[in-house]
Automatic annotation (TrEMBL):
The chain crosses the membrane at residues 158-179, 185-206, 227-245, 265-289, 301-322, 328-352. This is DUF373 family protein. It comes from Halosolutus amylolyticus. InterPro entries: DUF373. Keywords: Membrane, Transmembrane, Transmembrane helix. It holds the Pfam family DUF373. It comes from the Archaea.
Length: 368
């Protein structure tokens, strides 16, 4: 048996005539078509139902086994509408009294209604699809549906509309720049915004930024100390950079002539290393705290603050030596102290891990 299935995805039939769907059988379908055409003569779904009746009459005249039905969705959205169409197709198939295999001929009024075809195909084999659209409006409807889909898709909307909007801003901004005698500034700013947006889209920076913001949000609500440690560390880095620049300016002012590049670097490190070391220790302690709370702390993680301190001692001594603040004896002692600090901490926590961890993995909190 061939089932002529007329699809009204947005349920114009039910909303405009009050008909209960699905509508099954030649006479009820004709009654529904007349009611919809009377209620709204411009509705293309009426043409779909009449086309279904025409196909039914043509096949019935050839003594073929055929049935006609109208199924509808709703105007809430594509997903829910597709589900309702699928449920009504199930109802139609259950009502057919035949021992023959059932196939369907789907009749629609355009690209939007054809989005439900995979739903129908999952329930009954489809022999064909007949699109019924007023000839003058076919291209217009397809264009309208395409534009509607682009505007409804957040990904496509951002990709297409944002660059287009920036381009459209170039002319009015150029006029404003001309009035303010700064055309280059406004044109350059607009071009930079467009360039940065395209680069971020090409490199996927937008997704990474969203992921970073989401991780920060989860960390904030979860009470993780790492987020606070990062904020404090960022502040210490800023203070250290300012302190390093002050030390560099003081060294340049105290030196007659041109300052050697190694001396400049040493001055910056000498003035900032203690702040940078504090930032490193802060972040490592925050990470250690979160790992301990989560139950995933390993003994070797505790090496981090000692490594940071050891490197800070070494860098401070080297930079001070280049600035003639300390002598060779202090440098040798600092290098030895930094090396020993790193080695001792590594050995100490390796021994602790082997003796007190279950399977050599996690600290035994019960022994604390």
């Amino acid at each position: 048996m061939l089932l002529v299935l007329c699809v009204d995805l947005d349920d114009d039939l039910g909303r405009k005539t009050g008909f209960s769907t699905p509508v099954i059988g030649r006479d009820p379908v004709e009654e529904a078509a007349v009611a919809l055409a009377t209620a709204d003569p411009e509705d293309s779904d009426a043409n779909v139902i009449f086309q279904g009746l025409h196909i039914y009459d043509d096949l019935d005249a050839r003594d073929e086994s055929v049935e006609v039905a109208v199924v509808t969705g709703n105007d809430d959205g594509d997903v829910q509408a597709n589900r309702e169409v699928g449920e009504e197709v199930d109802t139609v198939l259950a009502s057919l009294s035949t021992a023959e295999d059932v196939t369907a001929l789907v009749v629609t009024d355009g690209a939007q209604d054809e989005s439900v075809i995979p739903i129908i195909r999952s329930r009954v084999p489809i022999d064909g699809v007949r699109r019924v659209v007023v000839r003058q409006a076919q291209n217009l409807e397809s264009m309208y549906y395409t534009i509607k889909q682009v505007l409804n898709d957040p990904e496509t909307r951002g990709t297409v509309l944002i660059p287009l909007g920036i381009l459209l801003l170039i002319y009015p901004l150029a006029l404003i720049g001309t009035l303010l005698d700064m055309p280059g500034f406004f044109l350059g700013t607009t071009s930079a915004l467009l360039g940065l947006y395209l680069i971020s889209r090409g490199l996927g920076l937008g997704d990474r930024l969203d992921a970073t913001v989401e991780r920060a949000r989860r960390s904030l609500y979860a009470g993780r100390t790492t987020l606070l440690a990062y904020v404090v560390a960022a502040t210490l880095l800023v203070i250290g950079s300012v302190s390093g620049l002050d030390a560099l300016e003081a060294e340049q002012a105290a030196t007659t002539g041109e300052t050697d590049v190694f001396v400049q670097l040493a001055a910056f490190v000498f003035g900032s290393i203690q702040w940078f070391a504090a930032a490193g220790i802060t972040t490592s302690l925050g990470q250690i705290t979160d790992e301990y709370i989560a139950g995933s702390l390993e003994w070797r993680y505790l090496n981090a603050p000692f490594y940071v301190l050891a490197m800070a001692i070494v860098l401070h001594a080297v930079s001070a030596f280049f600035l003639d603040v300390v002598g060779i004896t202090y440098l040798a002692a600092a290098l030895t102290a930094g090396t020993l600090l790193g080695i001792v901490s590594t050995l100490a926590f390796a021994v602790a891990e082997s003796r007190f961890s279950e399977g050599g993995r996690q600290p035994d909190r019960a022994s604390r």
